[in-house]
Amino acid sequence: MGGLPAGRVEPTEHDYALWEKRVDALMVLLGGQGRGVITVDELRRGIEQLGAEAYEAMSYYERWIASMTNTLLAKGIITSDELGRRMAEVGKRGEGAG
Amino acid sequence: MATHDHHGHDHAPPPDEDGPLTYYQTMEIAVRELLIEKGIFGADDVRRAIETMDARDHAAGAEVVAHAWTDPDFREALLADGTGACARLGIDIGPTRLIAVENTAAVHNVIVCTLCSCYPRNLLGLPPDWYKSRAYRSRVVREPRAVLREFGTAIPDDVTVRVHDSTADMRYIVVPRRPAGTEGWARERLAALVTRDSLIGVTVPKNP
Q1: Residues of A whose CB is below 8 A from B38
Q2: B153 CB contacts (<8 Å, ≥6 apart)?
Q3: By mean pLDDT, which of A63-77, B10-24, B105-119 is the weakest?
C-alpha cells in the first residue's frame, strides 16, 4: 500500500467500540503471556489471505477477527462445526454488541 | 455525528454498540466463548486486557520525551536503545523493539506502518483511525511534506523529512524538538506540551 495514490488524510478518530476492544484483547491474549497460540505474523498473514476485495470491504477489526478465526480453525483449536453452531446460537440470543 | 438530545449527550456512542449483531461481531462472541470454554484464557483475562488498553494513552510517551529533554544521559540511552531506556523508567515496551528517532534543526521524523497499523501502543495507546487509513499509509512515504501540511505542519525545504516504516517487531517513536522558552521547566510541565501527534511526527509540540 505504501506509495500508492490516495486521497487527503482525514484526521479521523473514533472511540473504539467494546467489541473492537474485545477483538484486540483476544489477540493480546492469544499472542502473548506465554500462550503463543497465534503470533502477530500469523495474524498478518491471515489478513493478507483475505484478498484485496475483502480487505477493502471489511473494517479493521473485522479483518482481525476473520484472520484469527481462520488461524484457530487451521490449527484445530476450534472446529468449523462448533464455530457454526455457536454463531447460530449467539445470533438467536438477540443480544447487542455490547 | 448524531446527538441524543433527549438526554443531553453531546457525543454519540460508537456506531457498533447497538442494533443487531453483525456477522463479525457474532463471530467474535462465538470465538471468545469457545476459547474460554476450552480454557485457553478466562473471561477475567479479557476484561483485564481491555482495562489495560483503556488505561493507556500517550502520557507514557510524553514522559519519555520530557526525560530525554531534561537528562542528556537518558537521551543518549533512549536513542541507543529505546526499549532499554523505557525499562529504566518502568515502562515495559513488550516484545517489540523500540527505536526513538530525534528531530533536530536539520531533520524531521515521522512514523507510519504501511503494512497495517504497527504503533508503539505501550507509549501512545491505541492508534487513531487516520494512522490506519489508506490515505496516510499510502501517501506519507511518497509525499510526506504534503501530508504534514494537511496536519497543519509546514516543514522548511532545508529540513530533511525522514519517514520510518514500522513492522510487527520494530516500533518507532519521534522525540520532537523541545520548544523554545521552556528553559528550566520541570518534567511534568514539559510533558504537557508533548501531544500524541507530535510523537508520531505529524505535528510539533505545543508552544509554551
Answers
A1: 77-78
A2: B202, B203, B204
A3: B10-24
What pLDDT, in 10s, does the model give residues B119-137? 998 999 999 999 998 899 9
Catalytic site includes residue B117:
yes
With beta carbons less than 8 A apart as the criterion, state whether B126 and A16 touch: yes
- The dotted CATH code for B59-200 is 3.90.330.10
> How confident is the prediction for chain A on average, in pLDDT?
89
* Chain B CB contacts of A3 below 8 Å: 114, 138, 141-142
Q: Give B136's contacts (C-beta < 8 A, 6+ positions apart).
A: A9, B112, B130, B147
Q: Is B86 a catalytic residue?
A: no
Q: Where exactly are the structural domains of chain B?
A: 20-55, 59-200
- Measure B110 CA to nearest chain A CA, in Å: 14
Among residues B120, B124, B123, which one has the least CA distance to residue B89?
B123
What distance in Å separates the CA atoms of residue B129 and residue B147, rounded to the nearest whole number?
15
The pLDDT tens digits for B58-72 are 999 999 999 999 999
Mutate to test the interface with A, among B17, B24, B51 (most CBs of A within 10 A): B24
> Closest to A13 (Cβ–Cβ): which among B94, B129, B147?
B129
The domain ranges of chain A are 42-89
